[in-house]
Amino acid sequence: PKGKGPQGKRITLKVAKNSVRVAFNGRRRLDLSKMGIATFPKCILELADVEELDLSRNMLKKIPNIIEKFQNLMWLDLHSNQLDELPAAIGTLHNLTYLNLCNNKLKGLPEELTLLRNLRTLNLGLNCLETIPTTLGTLRELIELGLFDNALTIIPKSVKKLPKLEKLNVKRNPLPEFAEEEEPIDTVKRIESLYLVEKKDLCSSCLQTCQGERDELHKLEDVTPGPSNKPSFPLLVAPNSSARDNQEEWRMK
After folding, report:
1. CATH fit for domain 27-169, picks 3.40.50.720, 3.40.1190.20, 3.40.50.300, 3.80.10.10
2. What is the pTM of this model?
3. Which end of the chain has the least Cβ crowding within 10 Å, N or C?
């Protein structure tokens, strides 16, 4: 189709202007998500005064340094693209409180990312990160941090101890401290039946049987039990009042 190809869909200024929406919080959002964009559209520099920019679910491989023109940005969504790096100019967006970089191909983070001192939500999940800088601990306003589905083997203490951090998602990383412990082997075998009658309510035959099974229980810790031919008394699980009424039936059995 016309306008599509290796370079993706071409966004015109008219299309961009028609994509500006007013968010529920009153901010103006330029929503260019799911547009098939492969190259950052320079025409949107004419709309650089918006507070929110959504370029998610496209085919972007690079964000140019001209992103610094969007100085009013408080909310930036770049998730589900093909980004393998971020520009240093990302650190100039000092008003950012929300940054979503999930589901890209990031292998590292620019040092300038730590200049976003007002950032409250940062999503770096589903990338190719093997390390994160300790200086990420300078983002002291962070409330939510997503690091899931990466290749991280360590989380810096400076990040774990962020003063306002409420949600830290590090699932599905090869982190030693989150390795599942093997389930301990239970050497004590569990009984299958529990008799709830008093000794005085049993006939001599039943009492002898119960005494024998009780003696067997003391040996089960070291001995694996085999099939038992001992008689079963399922009605003995009845309360004591019922046990008295049914003694004759048990004797007959």
Report:
1. 3.80.10.10
2. 0.69
3. N
